Amino acid sequence: MLKIRSGYLKEQMANLSFALPAIVIFAIFYIYPFFKVFQLSLCNWDGISPFVFSQHFVGLRNFKDVMADRIWWESMWHAVYITLIALTFQNALALALALACDQEIRARNFFRVIFFIPPILSEVVVGLIWNWIYDGNYGLLNHWLKILGLHHWAHNWLSDPTTALTCIAVVHSWKGFGWGFIILLAGLQTIPRQLYEAAKVDGANSWQIFLKVTVPLMIPVFILVSILTILGSMQVFILIISIMGQGLAYHTEVPVTRILASMLGSSQFGYACAQGVVFGIVLIILSFGQKRLSRYFRQE
Amino acid sequence: MKRDGLKYRIKRRVKAFIIYLFLSIVTVVCLFPLAWMLSSSLKSQSTIFSDMSIIPRNPIWSNYAEAFIKGKFWIYMTNSIFYTTLVVFGIVIVSSWAAYAFSRLKFPGSGLFFNMFLAAMMIPLPGSFVPLYVLVNNVKKIIISGLHYISPFLLRFFSEDTVLQIFSFIEQQFYPRSVYIFCMINVGLSLSIYILKTFFDKMPKELEEAARIDGCSKMGIWRHVAMPLARPAIAVIVIFNTLNVWNEYILAQLILTQNNAMPLQRGLMVFQGVYVTQYPLLMAGITMTVVPILIVYLAMQKHIIKGMTAGALVG
């Protein structure tokens, strides 16, 4: 009896050993940081002195400071601004392209391949190329504006606080629209053609077909795309670091660059973690709200 | 009746024309920055600020050689290839073991662990690089003090110079590189396990049972039956993770502090910091970074789009 049980246990352990490397790596590099963030967020620690929880514990003071941190909430607004532009313009463009490609056209796959090129480029590469295009003195954008006779428009796009954020949002949308396009097109192609034909027979015009057939069927896909856009755009930061080059300034700060600054710039590791927790909660609320919205629409 | 048909045909033509025009404009918008990058990389430092043509009059190919050698892009390129190869290899092995176990084998906590991997894909955790950075530095301190502890022993066999060289190699090269590789394996792990597990779940069990009856061990079944059958899913994982690792930046910035251990993305930022206005060389460097990934993409675009959308649909 004992022998059988020990054999059973041995087999279970042998099975577990298959998953063990993945679990160990995951525990060290994901689960440990996950809980450590919460612990550190309750401490005031400079990252250099040996860490003793009871010595550095300050309670919720970091969170209080985050709530009162004006620059932090400004950076949050910047991220929201980029997200709003991505949600509207980028997704409208993605939808228009997906609808155009959903028609019976030749070379659909060609366009699909082309539009997905920006998403596979790294943020560093995209940022550096556009940094050169936006360059205040010799950039291509200013050169074209001068050719068009719009001399007074040409200026240093990225160091001007009124235009920098919009310029970044444009680049972000340029990089991201291919994503939404691919997902929306995949969604559109699952809609049975018979539905369109039936609507046409009933005398509906294309606009009516779009509103009454396409949109209701696509709502889950719309929600999915908007969740992805929100999560992606709120957390954009490498693009900003690289597009701003050495001139990263307050007017283009986003939450993640603030977290990096608290950590590397002013060595406030506890504060950085508190910011991370607050930002994580904001993101979870946003995506949770979107999911609730999708459930509401599905019941309709 | 005939006029109606003509009207209809014209209407359709106009509609098709508008659609193609729209798609073509977006195509140009999509590709133009890349064309501008390529064209800038072939101009000289003296003409780059005045010559705004897309096709440079006399292309200077030596920019590439200069960026490659003087700009140290050969180091960054080697490092990127090194990291990408090892990380992708690691992910394929580790995630296929785990996915096979989650799909086929029984062990305590399998459901819990699998759900943890799933949850990791859905919960955004923006500040997690802070404790990761702390952990990496703390372990580094422990390793250094451990090395000092055993140094008297090593000094008996090697000269002082050799020992110091070994120490600095471990501290500045071996340790950060291996930590970076494991970090990146972790980044790609969840999605890879998910893709492979769903693939294994759909796979018929008969072949594996036949192999077991023939006396094949579990590892043997994984190696000789499951892996060859899962080839399509593994292709998706390989390509998807190759893109991810090649394009990764922030962990490289936090973990790899030595210039000669940096991958391309990090190297580009360092280069930009040093040679601020040397746009031709910078653009040559960017082109060298982009071209391999573009080739992989164009050759494998079906797998890539599949992998990317699979990742999106989980979250």
CATH superfamily of one domain in chain B: MetI-like
Give the radius of gyration of chain B.
Answer: 26 Å
Beta strands of chain B, count: 0
The CATH architecture category of the largest domain in chain A equals Orthogonal Bundle
Radius of gyration of chain A from CA coordinates: 25 Å
- Output the helix-strand order of chain A: HHHHHHHHHHHHHH
CATH topology of the largest domain in chain A: MetI-like fold
Description:
- The complex is a heterodimer of chains A (300) and B (315).
- Chain A is an all-alpha fold and 300 residues long.
- Chain A has helices at 2-40, 53-56, 61-68, 70-102, 108-115, 117-120, 123-134, 140-147, 161-189, 193-201, 206-234, 238-244, 255-265, 269-299.
- Chain A starts with a helix and ends with a helix.
- Chain B has a domain at 72-274: MetI-like fold (Orthogonal Bundle).
- Chain B is 81% helix and 0% strand.
- Chain B has twelve helices and no strands.
- Chain B has helices spanning 2-41, 62-69, 73-104, 110-122, 129-157, 160-202, 206-213, 218-229, 231-247, 250-255, 264-274, 279-314.
- In chain B, helix 2 crosses helix 12 and helix 4 (110-122) crosses helix 6 (160-202).
- The longest helix of chain B is centred in the middle third of the chain and has 43 residues, at 160-202.
- Chain B starts with a helix and ends with a helix.
- The chains are: A mainly alpha (300), B mainly alpha (315).
